Amino acid sequence: MAYLRIGGVDLYSEVAGKGDPVLVLHGGFCSLESLRAQSDALVPDYQVFAFERPGHGRSADVDEEFSYARGVADTLAYLDAQGLGPVHVVGYSDGAIIGLLLALDHPERVRSLVAISANLDPSGFVGSPEAADANVLDALRIAEGRTADDPDAERMHYERLSPDGPGHAEVVLAKLLRLWTTEPRIDPAELARVVAPTLVMSGDHDTIRPDHSLLIASSIPGAQLCIVPGTTHGLVTERPELVSALIRDFLRQHTHQA
């Protein structure tokens, strides 16, 4: 296993393949395993870089609260540590939000962006017209068709992988709930500044409302929108071959663009 010292902590990292660089950014309470199918599909034609943020997967948690600003800073530090210039970015959920912020504030680092199940603010969640009232963890569970007693694949990954031990999951989930009910706060009008070719993707029964995904795509000049049928917020594992094919097709269109 490879670790890089990023932001004062050791973060788990994987690099595989050859070709144009693609950065894969996982979601909240996820590890790289959630995007394994997509990473594996890209490796034959691209060099895929991926790391796990603090408190996720094989990376130990930190004492501070989670924030998207920290996610962006860690991502930039990771790119620098790997000696990378502009990269194609494939982000899922929290990773897609970080990707949007990178494209907004650091356009020189993003060649293209695939943003899967992103939201601009907490009101984008199904059943959450007001950010502060959202019980996002319950919303995610319901949207994915699970009952409170169903096994959670991400929790099982966490218990298997986390250096903090399985009991620390509740600490991470509490911090994520505070994050998801207060951030991000991206003005859709600001997305007009995004210059990277962008594909916005979500499930037709996603925790992110379809109209919110449409808002993101329509606010980014030239962006493409894909609503994947028969899927929830877990579309990357529910329809892995389709999602991977869509990503590969999009990247092929922009592989040779600087």
From TrEMBL:
UniProt-listed InterPro entries: AB_hydrolase, AB_hydrolase_1, AB_hydrolase_fold
Short name of one Pfam family: Abhydrolase_6
Coiled-coil ranges (or none): none
Domain AB hydrolase-1: 22-245
PANTHER family (alphabetical): AB HYDROLASE-1 DOMAIN-CONTAINING PROTEIN, HYDROLASE, ALPHA/BETA FOLD FAMILY PROTEIN
Protein name: Pimeloyl-ACP methyl ester carboxylesterase
